[in-house]
Amino acid sequence: MSVLKMAIFVVLLAVVSTPVHAKIRAVGKGDKMTFDPTQIPADLKQAFEIMKVKCIQCHTQERTVIAIQTGIAPVTGQPFDKQATKAYGIKMLRKPKSNMSREEVKKVVDLMNFLIDEAAKP
Ligand code: HEC
C-alpha cells in the first residue's frame, strides 16, 4: 500500500471508529486510565473518590471508562446504558471480596449515570 493510500485509510478509520459518545474525556492510558476529574461536578467528587479506590480492586478503571465512552460493556459486549448501570453495580458488589458497601456502589452508580448523560449530549 502506498503511503498516500495508507494515510487515507487511517483517516477513514478514524472517522468511522469515532465513538458516538465522545464527550467524556479520559486521562492516562491503559492501566492508568481514568475519567478526567475536571468533568466531575462538586456534588459527585465524593463518588469519584470512592470509584477511584473501590472500582480498581479487581480490574483497572479503563474498563469503566470504555463502558461509558462506548456504551458497551467491554467484557460481555452488553449495552452499558442508564438502564444497566445499577445492575452492573450490584453485580460488582456481589463478587467475592468486593469490599464495597451498598451505599458506596449506589454513589458510584449515580456518578456513572451522570457520565452517561454527559456522554449522550450532542
Ligand atoms: C471483587 C472484584 C471487582 C470489583 C470490586 C469491581 N469489579 Fe468490575 N468486574 C469484575 C469482574 C470479575 C469483571 C468481569 C466481567 C464480570 O464477571 O462481570 C468485571 C467487569 C466490569 C465491567 C465490564 C462489564 C461487562 O459486562 O463487560 C465494568 C464496566 C465494571 N466491571 C465496572 C466496575 C465498577 C464501576 C466497579 C466499582 C463499583 C467495579 N467494577 C468493581 C470484578 C470487580
Describe the structure.
There is one protein chain. The chain is mainly alpha-helical and 122 residues long. It has one domain: Cytochrome c-like domain (Cytochrome Bc1 Complex, Chain D, domain 2), CATH 1.10.760. Helix content is 51%, strand content 3%. The chain is built from five helices and two strands. Strands 1-2 form a two-stranded antiparallel ribbon. Helix 2 packs across helix 5. The longest helix has 19 residues. The chain is elongated. It starts with a helix and ends with a helix. The model has no long low-confidence stretch (mean pLDDT 89). The site of heme C has 23 residues, from helix 3, helix 4 and helix 5.
Strand order of the largest sheet: 1-2
For the CA atoms, what is the radius of gyration?
16 Å
CATH architecture: Orthogonal Bundle
What is the total tally of β strands?
Answer: 2
**How does the overall form come out from the CA principal axes?**
elongated
Low-pLDDT stretches: none
What's the CATH class label? Mainly Alpha
**Approximately how much beta-strand content do the residues carry?**
under 5%
Distinct ligands, ions and cofactors found in the model: heme C
Helix vs. strand class = mainly alpha
Task: List the main descriptive attributes of the protein structure presented here.
3% strand, elongated, 5 helices, mainly alpha, 122 residues, 51% helix
Task: Please render the helix and strand layout as text.
Layout: H1 3-17, E1 26-27, E2 34-35, H2 45-54, H3 62-70, H4 85-93, H5 102-120
Antiparallel strand pairs: 1-2
Helix pairs in contact: 2-5, 4-5
This protein binds heme C (HEC).
The site of heme C (HEC) has 23 residues, from helix 3, helix 4 and helix 5.
